[in-house]
Amino acid sequence: MSSGHSGSREPIAGIRAATLSVSNTSDGLHSPALSTHAPKRIALVAGEASGDGLGAGLIEALRVHFPDAEFAGIGGDAMRHAGCETWHHASELSVMGLAEVLRHLPRLLKLRREFRERVLAWKPDVFIGIDAPDFNLGVEAWLKQRGIRTVHYVSPSVWAWREKRAAKIGNSADLVLCLFPMEPPIYAKHGVDARFVGHPMADALPLEPDRATAREALGLAPNIPVLAVLPGSRLGEVGRLAQPFLEAARLVAESLPHLQVVVPAANQQCKQVLAPLLAGMPFPTPRPHLYDGQARECMIAADVVLLASGTATLETMLAKRAMVVGYRISPLTYRIVKLLGLLKVERFALPNVLAGEDLAPELMQEDCIPEKLATALLHWFQHPEAITALQPKYLKLHHALRQDASARAADAVAELLVGLGDGRREAEHS
Predict the structure, then answer these.
(1) Residue ranges of domains in the chain
(2) How many other CB atoms are found less than 10 A from the CB of residue 427?
């Protein structure tokens, strides 16, 4: 729950960073267009793998509009392969946990200061910050104050927390590209230009995922009940959710003969937490299977999914699987959120928010206990007709989000640049 602030003093608490890996590739240089104008320069920042994928797709789509454009900034391997000159690797913004943030804070502040100066000196036609709001919104505000057009791609969850945050984001970005259709109207209230472009995940996942192929890939029998358990991708989440989630899975397994429980570990750190927990639990045969990654395959292979609230709920919906959503935050944080009235929605799981109805049970905080989770899970297994009834609703939402997001985002950026000429760089060359 970080908040974006304009200028150079926004909080860094949500930033994630790792090791320095500066690429000096020149992939971003292309043959000049048949024009007297200088090629467009587009600066971008992506701070993690999901943002890197969005950035790569956007770069490819922007080349349709600007074939000779130059791209530079902070990104991962996908953006570099798409032709972006990566001054820093995205992993440098990938710090987890308060202690990590504090330890890396001097380096992160120095990186941000030097990076924005380099962007300014490069004189881009537009700067595009992709997600990573704690880093990007401050950079966007600083550059916007100095006359550079700015875009923020992936809106923070203004619909869930403080709507007034939309106005602050508008102070940073000339244009906000939203993944969900309920977001632009919130920005419109505050006079911010925000466009719904769709969700790239909806473009990537098939409308009818292949359960049989997923089971084969995971080594699962084709005709047994399968429960996928995803207790989060961050250590804090896993620490709070793994125990009640796995206990719930054990209760379900005791009621359902032959149930196969699959647990995809998001990374090695999470696996180190999950493995001993699973080993110490008296599951009936077959024992749960712990995988390295393969979360999407586990979702598609499953009949029912138990998972933490977050983007994974959207992925499970797109996989057309019934789910139970659980979440716990620290008791202190929860009390503060409730006391200050920060949470503005009745529902917090993305499929429920998008549908405006309860497609999936939500068990938050004191309700997120093994017995209640198991009861909700068993309901799906015992009532397959209820799962069947979900499918047209899931499909409708999938179609709504399937908008060719990269192309629509590129169209909006191109529209922003139309009529602006080639900016200060052309003036300097005249």
Answers:
(1) 41-198+403-429, 211-401
(2) 10
Paired sense of beta strands 126-130 and 149-153, if any: parallel
The tokens of 38 are what? 């200088």
Please give the CATH number for the structural domain made up of 211-401: 3.40.50.2000
As given in the structure block, the two tokens for residue 44 are 């971008």
**Spatial separation of the C-alpha atoms in residues 184 and 50, rounded to whole Å:** 22
**Can you read off the two tokens belonging to residue 315?**
């992925």
Helices of type H across 146-189: 165-172, 183-188
Whose tokens are 């466009």? That residue is 195
Which residues have C-beta within 8 Å of that of residue 315, sequence separation ≥ 6?
201, 205, 295, 296, 299
Burial call 394-407: b when 16+ CB within 10 Å, e when fewer: beebbebbbbbbbb
DSSP, res 38: P
3-state helix, strand, coil in the chain (%, to 5): 50, 15, 35
- Kindly give, in sequence order, each residue whose CB lies less than 8 Å from that of residue 413, ignoring residues fewer than 6 positions away: 42, 58, 62, 65, 126, 128, 151, 175, 177
How far CA 273 is from CA of 237, 334, 395, in Å, comes to 11, 24, 35
CA separation for the pair 54, 90 (Å, rounded): 13
Residue by residue, pLDDT tens for the chain (430 residues) are 333 333 332 222 232 333 222 233 333 333 333 344 789 999 999 987 788 999 999 999 999 999 999 999 999 999 999 999 999 998 888 665 556 667 778 888 899 999 999 999 999 999 999 988 889 999 999 999 999 999 999 998 765 556 678 888 999 999 999 999 999 999 999 999 999 999 999 999 999 999 999 999 999 999 999 999 999 887 888 888 999 999 999 999 999 989 999 999 988 989 999 999 999 999 998 999 999 989 999 999 999 999 998 889 999 999 999 999 998 776 666 666 666 665 555 777 899 999 999 999 999 878 999 999 999 999 999 999 999 999 999 999 999 999 999 999 999 999 999 855 444 444 444 3
**Which is nearest to 330 in space by CA: 97, 12, 105, 11?**
97
Domain 41-198+403-429 has CATH 2.60.40.420: no
Rounded Cα distance, 110 and 114, in Å: 6
DSSP state of 420: S
Amino acid at 136: N
Q: Do domains 41-198+403-429 and 211-401 have the same CATH topology?
A: yes
Q: Which residue intervals of 264-366 are DSSP H helices?
A: 268-279, 295-301, 311-318, 331-340, 350-355
